[in-house]
């Protein structure tokens, strides 16, 4: 085995590059009802195009740089943020939210 070997993926975007998603999350694990705040206001387009942000959690959809979701039941959830610039190029990022447990107290 070669410790220096790795698998890389190169994506070429001629002209217009996709938005870069930067999201701050209030917390990713907690007891129900668990309210999580997402802040994508630092998401940007490297080509300086305006960016629209949409948040998806199941059937619930919210628009804008900030969103919050309340998780009423225990389980593992995967909210998704979708950013698209004015030229139609987009990026997407998925997060893991765990409801029903908390980190142990040490």
What topology does this entry show?
Layout: E1 24-25, E2 29-30, E3 34-39, E4 51-57, E5 60-63, E6 66-71, E7 75-77, E8 80-85, E9 90-94, E10 97-99
Parallel strand pairs: 2-10
Antiparallel strand pairs: 1-3, 3-6, 4-5, 4-8, 7-10, 8-9
The low-pLDDT segments are: none
Calculate the mean pLDDT score and round it: 93
Number of helices: 0
Q: What's the main sheet like?
A: 4 strands, antiparallel
User: What pattern of helices and strands is seen along the backbone?
Assistant: EEEEEEEEEE
Strand tally: 10
Strand order within the widest beta sheet: 5-4-8-9
Overview features:
four-stranded antiparallel β-sheet, mainly beta
What does this entry look like structurally?
This protein has strands spanning 24-25, 29-30, 34-39, 51-57, 60-63, 66-71, 75-77, 80-85, 90-94, 97-99. The chain has 106 residues and is mainly β. The chain has a four-stranded antiparallel sheet, with no helix packed on it. The chain is flat and about 45 Å long. 17% of the residues are buried.
What is this structure, in a nutshell?
This protein has 106 residues and is mainly β. Helices cover 0% and strands 42% of the residues.
């Amino acid at each position: 085995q070669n410790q220096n070997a790795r698998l890389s993926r190169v994506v070429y975007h001629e002209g217009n590059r996709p938005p870069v998603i930067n999201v701050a999350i209030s917390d990713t694990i907690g007891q129900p009802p668990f309210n999580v705040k997402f802040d994508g206001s630092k998401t940007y387009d490297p080509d300086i195009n305006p960016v629209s942000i949409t948040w998806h959690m199941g059937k619930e959809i919210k628009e804008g740089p900030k969103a919050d979701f309340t998780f009423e039941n225990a389980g593992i959830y995967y909210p998704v943020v979708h950013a698209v610039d004015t030229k139609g190029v987009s990026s997407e990022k998925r997060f893991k939210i765990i409801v029903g447990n908390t980190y142990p107290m040490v």
